[in-house]
Specification:
30% of the residues lie in helices and 36% in strands. The chain has 205 residues and is α+β, with helices and mostly antiparallel strands.
Length: 205
Amino acid sequence: MIVILTLHEVQGKNPRILFAVRYFIPSETMLLNEKRTDGMRNIMRFKFVAIAALLSLVVFAGVGCKKKIADPFPATGAVTGWEKGDKTQTYDAANLFQYIDGGSEQYINAGVVGVATSDYKFQGNIEATVDVYTMKSSDGAKTIFDSDPPTTDSKSVPLGDAGRAYAQSVVFRKGAHLVRITAFEAAPGEDDALLTLAHAIEGKL
């Protein structure tokens, strides 16, 4: 009898085989036809113990390779003037469309794992939303970052691997993460406040 064990990762509608084990296990009839010596029994015991150990490694490897959605949100008071909202919401690749309906395909194609999002308020009068996207790799984060080209009112900022400040928003990438901070409306001191919050989040990634 031949046993094939496969470990799958399911991403949307496209399952991917992460690991496969193919092993031949002799039938009882075949074993009876073999010379039953103590040496043969010991060999068979060793083989089955080896299989069990290998299967355990496969299971733990599958669990370990699953990237978690990052949660680098500073608590209220951790960044001067900023208060964090009560809730942090998360969406994975399967239900990302519920958060960015009409734009989720772009992130899925780039290998998004999920997004965590939370609201913030600065000194009681600047409201902003922070979105932290976790991708499968840094290439995915770069793909999304590059999809928002510079504009006449944007400028590069020293954040993570690359950062850009726009009017009322800051976007940067660091490793496999892409962070977007968006203020709801313009206000005095907003640019500096957004950058200060961005640096705090960068430090937790």
